[in-house]
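B., you asked whether I could sanity-check this one before it goes into the benchmark set. Here's the sequence:
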Amino acid sequence: MRVHPLVFLAAMLALPAQAAAQAAAQAAAQAAAPDAERQARHVLNRIAYGPAPGDVARVRQMGVKRYIDGQLEPAALAYPAALAERLAALELPNMSAGAAMAQFAELRREVRSEEPGAKQRRAEGYRKMALEAQEARLLRAIYSPRQLEEVMVDFWYNHFNVFAGKGSARAMVASYERDAIRPHVFGSFRALLGASAKHPAMLVYLDNQLSRAGKLNENYARELMELHTLGVDGGYTQKDVTELARMLTGWSFAQRALMRKDEGFRFDARSHDQGPKTWLGSAVAQRGQAEGEFALDVLARLPSTARHISHKLAQYFVHDAPLAALVGRMARTFQSSDGDIRAVLRTLLASEEFMAPASIGAKFKTPYQYVVSAARAGGAPPGNVRPLVQSLKQLGMPLYGCATPNGYKNAEAAWLNPGALTRRVVFATAAGARLDAALLDADLGAAISPRTRALVAANPQPLRAAMLLGSPDFMQR
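And here's what the prediction gave me:
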């Protein structure tokens, strides 16, 4: 009896235990593959968004170590001409934060008029701004040869999350990603921390531009310690949060200066709390803006920060529950290199834990990783990625759409549930209809277990690509 693909997929994906068993089967299948192929697929699934056609053979030929080294130094990897042209044609992602804010302000002014259609024009303008930012991110993630760079943009954006739905932040998320995140994904953690702290998008999102002496807002100070640096168990108190917020008063920006002169961060000495402060057990000298800079210096170098960042990176790249020994080695590299992110990544990617067979298939793809990997597996040239924007919304992970400061989670528990899996089945059915199943199957190779391959082969040819994309095998990385 021939089983309809949706029934087949529902049976495979309905229970987490079944998905876990399928992941084990996938790991066994890959472990049985030649070692060079197994390592190539594993690396492409972890430091890239899965293999595009030809990638496995290319990585096997050049060697995994050389591929990793190249990804850690992405400046030598040129964008394909078609990708560069598509990105250059987008308006918002190429605007400065000031120009984007000016456009946003004009849209808000229009709606105050009584002219018919003003509200509709504003809504369309907002939608265009959001779509262009998301389009630029997806185009790079799918088609850029700098795959690890794109993976790290995803990691760090979620770590320093800014929600596009918060006021004028919607106009500045593209600038925030481009100017505060991208330049530092492999660089100094302290530089990344400072760039995030001073960007107007973060100042708006966590309200630090509203914080002043006598009218304190602790949102940014709290998340700076709890999420961005020390971690929830980092050894600080509520008093430390309050004192840090006082140290950061005056860290703001002026909207008019931003729009007219593209002047972003500004320290406003008049709103700074000049009183004595004691933070993390020590008295803080009254030094204006330098108080905040001092706080960032300290937070970037504390052992708790090294452990927190190392744990998050190990969880993202290796396992939802990374081994303490790996995290410890990474944390020591973090401290000895003064927060050199590239050095920490080298420690991680050269580790036995990263390349261990037990790591294969141990990570469940987030909706973003799933959608991007499906687009890459299809191998189509740069086209219209806007349907993928809608797919991410339907899968519960709209780009720049996480309202909470902790960003989207990357662990299996956040994404593996029957409702979410059903929505992935719907996506796989639509995406698979446009693909050649035989070519997709050949490219996925040992990533698909014999059990899944046999079940797919028992169904009609037009249904097979959807079944491959909707299988638990493909949902693991």
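One thing to flag: Strands lie at 251-253, 265-267, 277-279, 282-284. Otherwise nothing jumped out at me.
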